[in-house]
Write a structure and sequence with these properties.
Blueprint (H helix, E strand, L loop, with lengths): L6 H4 L2 E7 L4 H8 L1 H4 L1 E8 L5 H8 L4 E3 L8 H14 L4 E4 L8 H6 L4 E5 L11 H7 L4 E8 L9 E8 L6 H24 L3 E4 L2 E4 L6 E4 L2
Parallel strand pairs: 1-2, 1-4, 2-3, 4-5, 7-10
Antiparallel strand pairs: 5-6, 6-7, 8-9
The chain binds 5-O-phosphono-beta-D-ribofuranosylamine.
Length: 220
């Protein structure tokens, strides 16, 4: 099998994770790191009280906090953030509930090695309040997507999606919880693909060495 990168040969794929909050996806990534063939080198948050920082410390992973409030512009914050990230020389940067819009310079610096997870079946419901919008639209299935990040918000090439049913009694909260459970298997799966050298971003979208993308799995 032809691999897209030599990560498999050169050792474990190094990952930096960016968070702003609870970090339940980060926890799933930590728990699956050995099996997935990657190593989380650092966790960085723009919020000092993000519980994900505690999760990282408990796992012995270096952490950093950089407040966006200390910078006059988005570009200055992103530049300082890049300086911290690059100290860890990551093969991959993973956004896991990082609640910031990224500048063009940031996205271009990490092009092809920057992933995000979004709580909807993209391209449906890009942006915020996805669960309530899915209920309002009366969809029968909802879910989460992992995609390469480009300058278009939630618009980069979709790699994989996990879908769940929407029930008649669902609230935005109950639906969010069902989707989040799927996020916790979806994200480690995609990061493991990248770590194995099986995944890359091309001009025509995301490509896997063996699997047609976007890979969409339904969970009932
Ligand atoms: C998840 O719903 C993810 O899809 C979105 O932000 C949330 C992060 O949750 N991007 P957590 O911090 O990983 O628990």
């Amino acid at each position: 099998m032809t691999l897209f990168t030599d990560q498999k040969e050169s050792g474990r794929c190094s990952v930096v994770v960016l968070i702003s909050g609870s970090g339940s996806n980060l926890q799933a990534l930590i728990d699956c790191a050995d099996e997935g063939g990657y190593s989380i080198r650092a966790v960085i948050s723009n919020k000092a009280d993000a519980f994900g920082l505690t999760r990282a410390k408990q796992a012995g992973i270096p952490t950093a906090h950089l407040s966006h409030l200390a910078f006059a512009t988005r570009e200055e914050f992103d530049s300082a953030l890049m300086d911290i990230i690059d100290q860890f020389e990551p093969d991959l940067v993973v956004l896991a509930g990082f609640m910031r819009i990224l500048s063009a310079a940031f996205v271009s610096h990490y092009a092809g090695r920057l992933l995000n997870i979004h709580p909807s079946l993209l391209p449906d419901f890009a942006g915020v309040n996805t669960h309530q919008r899915a209920l309002d639209a009366k969809v029968t299935r909802h879910g989460a997507s992992v995609h390469f990040v480009t300058e278009e918000l939630d618009g980069g090439p979709v790699i994989a999606r996990h879908s769940v049913p929407v029930t008649q009694t669902d609230t935005a909260e109950s639906l969010a919880a069902r989707v989040l459970q799927q996020e916790h298997t979806l994200y480690p799966k995609v990061v493991a693909w990248f770590a194995a050298g099986e995944l890359r971003m091309t001009e025509s979208g995301a490509q896997h060495t063996r699997i047609p993308l976007p890979d969409t799995q339904d969970f009932d």
